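Internal ticket - ligand job 169, 5-O-phosphono-beta-D-ribofuranose:
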Amino acid sequence: MNDKAAIRVGILMGSESDWPTVQHTVLTLDELGVGNEARVLSAHRSPDAAGEYAQAAAGRGLQVIICAAGGAAHLAGVISAHTHLPVLGIPMKGWSTDGLDSLLSTAQMPSGIPVGTLAIGKAGAKNAALLAVAIMSLSDPELRARYLGFRKTQTEQVLAIKLPPAGSV
Ligand code: RP5
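stdout (structure tokens):
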């Protein structure tokens, strides 16, 4: 099912140090059979390359770009400024404030240039993939079927949970 030949989602992160978290975006997209590519591009340390990536993305067939960054997290906003594609932001838990700095700098975009901002850290990384899939599912019935299957399995797993006796954990 995994059509790796067609790269539909671009995943950017500001630093290699973001990868342990952002790998969950890739794992989720892979599970749902969505071709993706991940690379390090920084709004601050490699601004020209980041802009060039965003400007070329639609022409390369990308449909959604996911950006993870921490601290003064400008990556998603800068990428969105350079493309009409949907851009989703994952705030990284940085070296201070538990990622609140990243959350605010990703979410608080001035009007006109949107960034869809997910939760801080691993939950946001996974949900960014799922939201990208939900967006692409609007025009892709096969992907929608896989996504609905994923959701159904998740629900079944929750309903199957048997709690251990109270006092045993
Ligand atoms: C951001 O600065 C990155 O996205 C990362 O979350 C943070 C720290 O980067 P490193 O100093 O670990 O490279 O640009």
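Auto-summary: The chain has six helices and five strands. Residues 32 and 149 are 9 Å apart (CA to CA).
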